[in-house]
Amino acid sequence: MRIFGVILIAAATLWPVYWFAGLAGQHDAGASFSQYLGSASLILMGINQFLATRIKGLETFFGSLDRIYVLHKWIAVIAIAALGLHDIIDAEMDGIRGEALSGIAEDIGEVSLYGLLILGFASVITFIPYHLWKWTHRFIGVFFAMGAFHFFFIEKPFQNAEPLGLYVSAFCLLGLASYLYMILLRPMLPVGHAYVVKAIRHVGTVTEITLTPKGRGMRHKAGQFAFLQLAQSGLSEEHPFTLSSAPAEDGSLRFSIKDLGDFTRRLGQNLDEGGDATVTGPFGHFTLPSGRDPQVWIGAGIGVTPFIAFAESLKTRESGPVTLYYCVREESDAFFAEEFRQLAADVPAFELVLLSSANGERLTPDIIAAKAAADLGRTHVYFCGPKAMRSALRTELISKGLRGSRFHFEEFEMRSGIGLRKLANWLLDRGLSELARRREQRTQPGE
């Protein structure tokens, strides 16, 4: 994500401190702080509703869409935490008279709080099926609207027409307008590009879909992704997938989709040729640099799909030496190895290195650094695969001389948790260790 966008959001959230600091001198400081937390939560949620629209221009300020999804998640976490603290810390102030609807606003605020807490918690529990999560996620806008109503009519030490009231109200209106756009206006707008499913090919557990445009089609760069929606029963959910083909003269697109869940399983089994499809995008900044500096591509499993498009694009562009490390568990899982070998034969600057962990072959920073040698500082590294592998390689390669700005990656999961599973596993391990320790103490003979 772009630091400029993060600074904008932080500044927007902290700006009301100026007004609330003045109020704290006139009223109870704790209550003033609580009211600031409630206002900050509304500001963040209004921004988050706006980020969810995916309108053009967002990537300019906040970075590629995959980073925006990460930003969206953490803004929601902070907003709900602030909202929870607002509820815990008493916000009532002596001498403040409420409007006629203040009692109702209080009750609606409670409903909004618990609704947002439940849906927010459901969003970070990643084992909830995607279609159920997406369906319930739509109601966040409803509970946000209740929160805005609570703000407009609740007892507070300032009027809605005053600068502080107008400021917070502007973000409430931004969030409400964004939500209405998503549920009412966007479905009626001609968003996306119309395509037809031309061909379907099954390669192991991967389904390759080739689409041809009905009209002009979508222009994209190798490595970008798009949202795919298929006009077929059971497959009409919109999902993001990497485009596994470089831009083609006829405007055709290819998606290589691995069977990883209910939707992708249905897609592999039920999709028919000739059906209509809508593609929205493109998104993402995971694209090749200009120039002839050396490049290292690392694709683990299905994470190799953007590199198919990368390799195809080498036929029509100049580049320095390129090495692709294709990492799989079994050699039989390397579904695209033959395609890469053919591309390597056509493009002398491109080299494929296939690594199978079942054969004891693992990619290490030492292997990459040894091959790059003195050129490591000029090398661009592109990675797509598991986060743990990415973190380990990036840290070690930077310590060996790679520039951090030249390690490029994409957030592989659009929906991710906040470490709850890791925390649960840690607590379970600690609990089991403690039980084992106590059991051992009970079985030891007395001294």
UniProtKB/TrEMBL annotation:
It holds the Pfam family NAD_binding_1. This is Ferric reductase-like transmembrane domain-containing protein. Its cofactor is FAD. It is found in: Membrane. It is a multi-pass membrane protein. Its main location: membrane. It comes from Roseibium polysiphoniae. Residues 190-289 form the FAD-binding FR-type domain.
